[in-house]
Write a structure and sequence with these properties.
The structure is a single chain. 30% of the residues lie in helices and 17% in strands. It is an alpha+beta fold and 176 residues long. It has one domain (10-158): NADH Oxidase (3-Layer(aba) Sandwich), CATH 3.40.109. The chain has a 4-stranded antiparallel beta sheet with strand order 1-2-4-3, sandwiched between helices. Helix 2 (23-33) packs across helix 4. The longest helix has 18 residues, at 89-106.
């Protein structure tokens, strides 16, 4: 599959089979993600792999919207950044998480990004407890690590719908 085909095929996957993801596959995906560019090459991104079903269930409860499917994934990767290394840790994490998802897709896995940083646990209480604080406590994450997102991973249960054909020409500007 060419890179363009890979990018076009990748879709958010929220339904997974119960087939476990091998550790060697996870290590290969993480190895790819660690090659991501970072501001001034500080390499501030960190990863935590979770495969325990009980912990995945508790992670899925970090928000009352948009995270429930994590409990059915065979694995989840917490994408974190060292907040003391750079103020651009979120951007560095986002680049790494994107490469992580593309690497997973190239290996036949589905994935879905669940945003954590700046998101409340309860949709109707945006000023209440934050998902990041909940996860940091649940997973005993050191204070200097900020959590950007959780990427749920697994073998897709079904084929993703193809991208809709659309005219995106108004989204690109060429300046001479």
């Amino acid at each position: 599959m060419t890179f363009s085909e890979l990018v076009k095929h990748r879709r958010s996957c929220r339904k997974f089979t119960d087939k476990p993801v091998k550790e060697e596959t996870l290590r290969a995906i993480l190895s790819d993600a660690l090659t991501a560019p970072s501001s001034k090459n500080v390499r501030s991104t960190r990863f935590m792999v979770v495969r325990d079903p009980e912990t995945l269930q508790r992670i899925s409860e970090m928000r009352d919207f948009g995270s429930s499917f994590v409990k059915d994934a065979p694995a989840a990767i917490i994408v974190m950044g060292d907040t003391q290394a750079t103020d651009l840790w979120r951007e560095n994490c986002a680049i790494s998480a994107t490469i992580l998802q593309l690497s997973a897709e190239a290996r036949g896995l589905g994935s879905c990004w669940v945003h954590v940083h700046g998101r409340p646990r309860l949709h109707d209480n945006p000023e209440g407890e934050q998902a990041e604080k909940y996860l940091a406590h649940l997973l005993d994450i050191p204070q200097q690590l900020g959590i950007l997102c959780v990427v749920a991973l697994g073998y897709p249960d079904g084929e993703p719908r193809p991208h809709r054909e659309r005219d995106d020409s108004d989204m690109i500007i060429f300046k001479n």
